[in-house]
Amino acid sequence: MPTDRIFGPKMLRRTLLKGAGALALAPLAMKFGARPAYAADPGDRPKFGTSDYATRLVLLGTTGGMTWWPGSNRASNSQVLCVGEAMYLIDLGWGSLARLAEGFNFGHFVTNDGQRTQLELSTFMTNMRAVFLTHLHMDHLGDYPTFLEIGARAGYAEKQPLIIIGPGDRGRLDDNRSGYKGTVIQAERCNPPQSTPTPGTKMMTDHILQAFAQTFNNCAQDEGYPDIPKLLDIREIGDPATIPWPKEFILPDPNKPWTSDITCPAMDPFEIYKDDRLRVTAILVDHFEVYPAFAFRFDTADGSLVISGDTGPDTRGNLQKLAKGADVLVHEVIDDFWLKTCYKGVKEGDPTWPLYHHCITAHTSSADVGKVAEQCGVKTLVLSHIAPANTPASRLRSAQKGFSGKLIVGEDLMEIGIGRPHGRPKA
Hints:
It contains twelve helices and 19 strands. By secondary structure, the chain is α/β, with parallel strands linked by helices. It has a single domain, classed as Metallo-beta-lactamase, Chain A (4-Layer Sandwich), CATH 3.60.15.10. The strands form four sheets. An eight-stranded mixed sheet has the order 1-19-2-3-4-7-8-11. A seven-stranded mixed sheet has the order 12-13-14-15-16-17-18. Helix 12 links the parallel strand 17 and strand 18.
């Protein structure tokens, strides 16, 4: 990770003093090396959670795209919001759990003859309250199966059932822009009978438990794992029994082609979660043709955070409504220079056209993201879901054009304090 994006305590103090009267927010000193770690260095406390910010965002994975990017060690998209000791995960792209463990995992040790031995297994997820999925793409879900099993042993539902909130079944495939004539995979269940090519969060979770039944059952019977299906409280956005669509939304006609005004109609934010620490609202964004795709807003006593999810720049004003006046907007970005270089001369009908069309309609370029943040009136813009992951940070800083607030180019394991520093409440 380039060191110009990692801030030490002295620089943090200077940054806060320089920005006094604007926003008491700055990335804290959190760089733990480029190795793919599955645990923090041995210690009695996690590396995060020592700051005086009650509300903190930790970027776990900061790249996007269902591919690997040469020369980059960024994990796929994920972040964790900490309010006091309570933890809330937003998306779980592949590699993100290693980052979560790298920053938060800790153990209790005894020392014998100068050597340390851990006393028990990891339990660092005991304060996990909820997981939020912006949409059901692999670069936001790759570590979800691992989280369900290993996270249960690490305590994610020790205090109460873990709430998992994500999109419901959209009921139809995207329009076939590539001319694909191969297998259309169907997810099926028996009770009630249903077959769908676009399973929602609940069916997806059920099928993960079935697909990994052997290991789930073995771990429960051989190693004392908890009863995982009973620990999960799955709530689908769009399900009348849990989180219904807002009144402004009309389910798309399956016989009409997708258009962005159908997949992302103008609407008002609606509440999807609330507890004693925060309120979460959602709105549709335009990840054309992937539908539904949501942005989330997290409001705490300290301040407000918005996660854009994957979206093009035109959301019919939805993101602007959701993010209005927020302290921090974490927004996806795709390198405009890369788009123009990689797809130079491409035209409809070319083999690479479908992917190019997706990139320019379903994502926001570095040339546009600053303008979007300015329209939202946010104080700080954090670039994440960076594609390609190997894009130089100096080029991404061009996103400052058109944006009058503070710009941060996100890095894995960057911690951002939200609001003014003060003592943190306990979970």
